[in-house]
Amino acid sequence: MSPHPDYGVTPLEGLPSRVTICEVGPRDGLQNESAVLPVEVKAEFVERLVDAGHTVVETTSFVHPKWVPQLADAAQLLERLATVDGVRYPVLVPNERGLDRALALGVRDIAIFGSATESFARRNLNRTVDESLEMFAPVVDRARGAGLGVRGYLSMAFGDPWEREVPLARVVDVADRLMALGLTELSLGDTIGVATPGRVVALLDALVDRGIPINRIAVHFHDTYGQALANTLAALRRGVTTVDASAGGLGGCPYAESATGNLATEDLLWQLHGLGIDTGVDLGKLVETSVWMAQQLGRPSPSRTVTALTPGASA
Amino acid sequence: MSPHPDYGVTPLEGLPSRVTICEVGPRDGLQNESAVLPVEVKAEFVERLVDAGHTVVETTSFVHPKWVPQLADAAQLLERLATVDGVRYPVLVPNERGLDRALALGVRDIAIFGSATESFARRNLNRTVDESLEMFAPVVDRARGAGLGVRGYLSMAFGDPWEREVPLARVVDVADRLMALGLTELSLGDTIGVATPGRVVALLDALVDRGIPINRIAVHFHDTYGQALANTLAALRRGVTTVDASAGGLGGCPYAESATGNLATEDLLWQLHGLGIDTGVDLGKLVETSVWMAQQLGRPSPSRTVTALTPGASA
Q: A79 is in which domain, residue-wise?
């Protein structure tokens, strides 16, 4: 069944038949929202996302609450969460101490957050890129040893607000070193949303040339300049089958001083389902969830699709 | 010179080196804005768009003012406009009476507005599709005889709010009959923004199979569901080189009850320039113009790129 059968489904050659969405709303989305939500609202959010059909939901972060006050309740959230078999709930873990906490709570998937540029590594991790890789090495090693999945984000892979253009060779080099730590998946982050499709294809080709399998690569686009879905289409044509998105477009982009950050999952679903690509996610349920979350946050969803489908609720 | 050299330019194979933008802000954009603007503001708008580098600017419409009060000043606008050599200023003309007025004012390019569906033809033109084609026939014939360029819009080419999915064969049939009237260009309108890239490619292929040259086909996407740029990318890959867009994303979509209608020219420029595709349009000047127009209208631009580049002005 198509989630928007009203307007038909037309496949396009060269695209995958199924895409896995990594839903990052509860972590990457909420951490950029200034209104701090109660833990029970966050738990309901995750549970609604899973009920809508998501199989990968990034739930929270063990980054120090000083940096991300919104996620200070990470342990309480995980303890309260009714989890579902077959669903992965990755948790961001910055260092070994974070890993210890995650392991103690029974977490089965973690994520680490690397940077392609020195500027962002310094600002976000208070380390050089080399130092951050040294910090991650024992985290990934121990996590993999314990049988966990480890996703690695590579931020500023398409441009950086301080360094501007980021050389492709630089991105490939850091990606390669991250993968060598033992990642199960690498997510390429267009943290400030400046990428266009040529750059996406060039980076994917360069990573594959370096020996990183395309099925280990996810894309994480921001819609700051409206480019996220065109970039997604270009990535799918190159064989990518995992796409990060945030329900309702939650999470602005603090570095571009814009309200528009993460690609909205609903906008992604509209594209994928119109192309006949299976995601397992119910668009209607997701829109309902995003409208509910917008009410919790007291601001409308920036998602085009949410706005179009619920003109009253989002106006 | 790239308009955003800061983040580099990466071409993508299979795309054209140059794209002509048909800027529809003054007509298609403003006609959906409820705040009626003074004629001098409209003239300045058109002149600023041309100063930014646009070579095709749809300026106004001779539709009866009862239907489009915003454009009741069409004649005054055209009389006041300082035109520039090498720039086309198409004017929407619904019937022979409108053509007479346009010719008397020295208009050199007109546009007609057809529908792929009976529902929209009835609501928008108060005619059947057959009757509308009969109405257009003498308009196109006389205009071409007088040496004018004639652009024909085909609305609801990808979906219709009343009929929902519109059969491809139906769209091809009406397109063929429109072209047979003698159009110099056919613009395929996704009036409610529901299209996805597979449908775009399928329609283009079907039109080319029917014998319509791809260089006569323009695309007119709406961003109601966030799909416009991905659809544009798919169309460019199929050889389309003329893309309609509206400065600042002006013009909501009344049929989808959404604030988001036309693809914003700035979002399009970000994509094209990032791909190394020449448009001749200066992004910075266009953003300034859209911020100025947003002030005239008293509401922020819905363009992602305008918002990202002017966080203070659009907040």
A: 5-314
Q: Count the domains in chain A.
A: 1
Active site residue B253: yes
At residue A133, what is the residue type? L
What ipTM describes this predicted complex?
0.95
Characterize A85-110 residue by residue with b for buried, 16 or more Cβ atoms within 10 angstroms of its Cβ, and e for exposed.
eeebbbbbbbbbebbebbbeeebbbb
**Which of A253, A112, A87 minimizes the C-alpha distance to A186?**
A112
d(CA A160, CA B120): 46
List the one residue out of A158, A258, A144 whose CA is nearest residue A198: A158
Half-sphere exposure of A283 (CA within 13 A, CB side): 23
The residues near A312 (Cβ < 8 Å, ≥ 6 apart) are none
Q: Which residue of A has its CA nearest to B12?
A: A198
Higher pLDDT: A258 or A91? It is A91
CA distance A106 to chain B (A): 38
Q: What is the CATH number of the domain that holds B305?
A: 3.20.20.70
From the candidates A243, A253, A287, A306, give the one annotated as an active-site residue: A253
Alpha carbon distance B61, A141 (integer Å): 67
- Per residue in A120-158, pLDDT (tens digit) is 999 999 999 999 999 999 999 999 999 999 999 999 999
User: B258: nearest CA in chain A?
Assistant: A308
Taking contacts as CB-CB distances below 8 angstroms, the residues of chain A near B233 are 197, 230, 233-234
**Which tens digits make up the pLDDT trace of B54-77?**
999 999 999 988 888 999 999 999
Digit-coded pLDDT (tens) for A64-102: 888 888 999 999 999 999 899 999 999 999 999 999 999
Determine which of B158, B163, B225 to mutate to test the interface with A (most A C-beta atoms within 10 Å): B225
